[in-house]
Amino acid sequence: MVQPPLLFSGTSNRQLAEEIAKKMQTRVGNALVDRFKNEEVRIEIRENVRGAEVFVVQSLCRSLHGANVNDAIMELLLIIDALRRASANRITAVIPYYGYAKQDKKTKGREPISAKLVANMIERAGAERIVTLDLHAAQIQGFFDVPVDNLMAAPTLCNHLKNLGLQGDKIVVVSPDAGGVPRAELFAKRLKSNLAVIIKRRPEPDVSEVTHIVGDVERKIAVVVDDMISTGGTLVKAAEALRKKGATDVYTLATHGIFAGDAIKQFENSDIKKVIVTNTIPRATESPKVEHLTIAQILADAIKRITMNRSVSELFNAEEPSPEPPGEPPPAPAAAALELPVPAPV
Question: Of 41, 63, 260, 329, which sits with the fewest C-beta atoms within 10 Å of its C-beta?
Fold first, then answer.
């Protein structure tokens, strides 16, 4: 009998881990993730994992409880180490948001390549596979010597836009920079819409200036797509430029909503009608302009496919994936072996 997979979580995005578990009709495993009195991370796995296939869900970001991205990394490393020492068969790190991804290369002398160092630590701790979402730089997959599944939030985001009636000739998909054109092309293809590109320059990190726009946006709803939203300054300036070029409304979409500094306030005072992100990073501030979509179904489907040795990339091969009906329960597992009984409290 095949042992069912086990799911564990750190504290950075526990809610998403719970949603994934619900989609899989299982639960998050019993583990203590706390701090000692000297503020060091304390980890204790409180159930048997010997011989099991284990998935650890942890976004490398700040938590709602005050922990920062470095705390999240240490939690992940120590959970993986504890599972490995407890004789887990295979450990997969499910990292919805991969922190330090912007530092994927040296931009000037005497700088670290932080994304590579984080990859080294995760792999050295004992992770044998990585599942993540929309890496800021695709080459980060090559920083690991173990398999990396870089999933896409595009199906979830596009289905939401279609439900809002935002598709076809009514909209124009906009890339906020030249580097994001492949991503914008993917969205434009799924939404059967035209494409525009914003040309900008960056005088310094997190600061950008729009120079001009390539493509027709006049009398159309502009949908700006990006992989992450940090300070929001780039998107606010992009919205201003798009409105000046004749766009009737501006929506912005991103997989990862970091919302650093006063980003939310900037959006509320901007020309942007709606900011739509997924829940790879937990929501810290409420705003009528910001909408969060759950990415739990895609992650749950990927975990199931890995467990059953099926292709993960097939999840994204179809141009028009069928959206999950809202509010309906997830389908029953294919075999009873995928069900996980809840043990008595420790």
Answer: 329
pLDDT at residue 318, rounded to an integer = 55
Residue 243 has what pLDDT? 97
Q: Tell me if 221 sits within 8 A of 172, measured CB to CB.
A: yes
Choosing from 102, 105, 162, 200, the catalytic residue is: 200
DSSP 8-class letter at 4: P
What CATH number has the domain bearing residue 331?
A: 3.40.50.2020
Predicted pLDDT of residue 340: 41
3-class DSSP assignment, residue 53: strand
Is 245 noted as a catalytic residue in this protein? no
User: What is the total count of domains within the chain?
Assistant: 2
Describe the strand order of the beta sheet including 249-257 as a list of residue ranges: 207-214, 194-204, 171-175, 221-229, 249-257, 274-278, 290-293
Domain co-membership, 223 together with 301: no
Which residue is listed with tokens 């946006």?
217
Q: Please write the tens of the pLDDT for every residue from 272-331.
A: 999 999 999 999 989 999 999 999 999 999 999 999 999 999 998 755 444 444 444 444
* Residues 286, 309 within the same domain: no
Measured distance CA(219)–CA(240) in Å, rounded? 15
Outline where the chain has alpha helix (H).
14-23, 69-85, 114-125, 154-163, 181-191, 233-244, 263-268, 296-307
How many angstroms separate the most distant Cα atoms in the chain? 63
Q: How many angstroms separate the CA atoms of 327 and 321, rounded?
A: 18
Confidence (pLDDT) at 133:
98
Task: Specify the pLDDT at position 181.
Answer: 95
The range of the structural domain enclosing residue 32 comes to 6-152+296-338
Query: Both 145 and 161 in a single domain?
Result: no
Q: Which residues of the chain are modeled with pLDDT < 70?
A: 1-2, 205-207, 318-346
Fill in the DSSP letter of residue 91: E
* Coil, helix or strand at residue 6: strand
Instruction: Provide the pLDDT for residue 138.
Output: 93
16 and 142 in one domain? yes
Q: What is the pLDDT of residue 209?
A: 78
Same domain, 136 and 239: no
Domain shared by 99 and 182, yes or no: no
Determine, yes or no, domain membership for 344.
no
